[in-house]
């Protein structure tokens, strides 16, 4: 197992010991408290029933817009489509200049240069899915080359996928080493570690994978690629929010969570914001610590925002297509 990443140095003794070798890492991960499946699902369902009043709803919509990683990850992506996406990221509703810009655009590595040019000077991050996305089935050398290419092309964030096969077969040290190596290849770019929770099966595995990614230096832990079902769910996001909250309690460091895949409407987005506030805390209600990975969500947020301000529903023809 490689030495801990620079982001993990100076850890409390119990966490530093966990990164010492494979056996210590295994002992730590399997020593984490088990997740109460019934409890976490009941709490997620309970928080999802919270009602948000009109003024607060508008604020929540604007908060959610500012947390969106506007995404296109299709084999048919073109430079023109990416430039159009970036234009929407800069000004989500052309008729409403007060609408916040999104947090980032997320594209494949070969589209990063186009996205970086189209967002230059805006403060919008360019995220790139690297490391043989979405399967992660490749050699470490290829994953690192993928990462370096994305960063050299202008990516300020890298969304990597873990080797789920290695994780599920108990090769925690191998997964740890890959995250450490990719983090180093990122340089100044932030690293989001995709767990692909739909393939991890249990909440206990989600908790272990979350802590593994945090120990290895991930700046964010991310639910999913959006290519596997189920993708993001509220209970899974609860478990991940608990992990970053507990990490902060033990280290004083803030790490983020990104929920991606299947979040398509404003009602769902607000449910996630309620979970962020109640599980991790209000400090996490910022794009620096929480993101939505989405393509269709932004349109619904924009339509609901217009409805809040205008008193009627405008319909999809009044927002730009992705």
TrEMBL record:
Keywords: Lyase, Schiff base. One of its GO terms (molecular function) is deoxyribose-phosphate aldolase activity. The keyword Lyase applies. SMART domains: DeoC. It catalyses: 2-deoxy-D-ribose 5-phosphate = D-glyceraldehyde 3-phosphate + acetaldehyde. It is an enzyme of class 4 (lyase). InterPro entries: Aldolase_TIM, DeoC, DeoC/FbaB/LacD_aldolase. Pathway: Carbohydrate degradation; 2-deoxy-D-ribose 1-phosphate degradation; D-glyceraldehyde 3-phosphate and acetaldehyde from 2-deoxy-alpha-D-ribose 1-phosphate: step 2/2. The keyword Lyase applies. Its EC number is 4.1.2.4. Belongs to the DeoC/FbaB aldolase family. DeoC type 2 subfamily. This is Deoxyribose-phosphate aldolase. The lineage of its organism: Bacteria, Bacillati, Actinomycetota, Actinomycetes, Pseudonocardiales. The gene is deoC.
């Amino acid at each position: 197992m490689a030495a801990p990443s620079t982001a993990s140095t100076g850890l409390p003794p119990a966490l530093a010991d966990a990164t010492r070798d494979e056996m210590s890492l295994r002992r730590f991960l399997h020593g984490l408290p088990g997740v109460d499946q019934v409890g976490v699902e009941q709490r997620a369902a309970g928080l999802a029933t919270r009602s948000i009043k009109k003024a607060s709803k508008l604020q929540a919509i604007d908060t959610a817009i500012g947390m969106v990683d506007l995404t296109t990850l299709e084999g048919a992506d073109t430079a023109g489509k990416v430039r159009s996406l970036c234009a929407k990221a800069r000004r989500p509703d052309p008729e409403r200049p007060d609408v916040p810009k999104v947090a980032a655009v997320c594209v494949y590595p070969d589209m990063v240069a186009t996205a970086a040019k189209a967002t230059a000077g805006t403060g919008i991050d360019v995220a790139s899915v690297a490391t043989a996305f979405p399967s992660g089935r490749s050699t470490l050398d290829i994953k690192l080359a993928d990462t370096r290419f994305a960063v050299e092309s202008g990516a300020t964030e890298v969304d990597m996928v873990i080797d789920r096969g290695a994780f599920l077969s108990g090769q925690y040290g191998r997964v740890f080493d890959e995250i450490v190596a990719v983090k180093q290849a990122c340089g100044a770019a932030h690293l989001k570690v995709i767990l692909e929770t739909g393939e991890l099966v249990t909440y206990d595995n989600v908790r272990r994978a979350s802590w593994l990614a945090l120990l290895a230096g991930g700046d964010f832990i991310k639910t999913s690629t959006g290519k596997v079902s189920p993708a993001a769910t509220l209970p899974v996001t609860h478990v991940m929010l608990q992990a970053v909250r507990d990490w902060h309690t033990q280290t004083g460091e803030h790490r983020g969570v990104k929920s991606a895949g299947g979040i398509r409407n404003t009602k769902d987005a607000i449910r996630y914001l309620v979970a962020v506030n109640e599980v991790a805390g209000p400090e996490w209600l910022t794009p620096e610590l929480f993101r939505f990975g989405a393509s269709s969500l932004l349109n619904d947020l924009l339509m609901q925002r217009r409805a809040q301000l205008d008193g009627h529903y405008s319909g999809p023809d009044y927002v730009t297509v992705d």
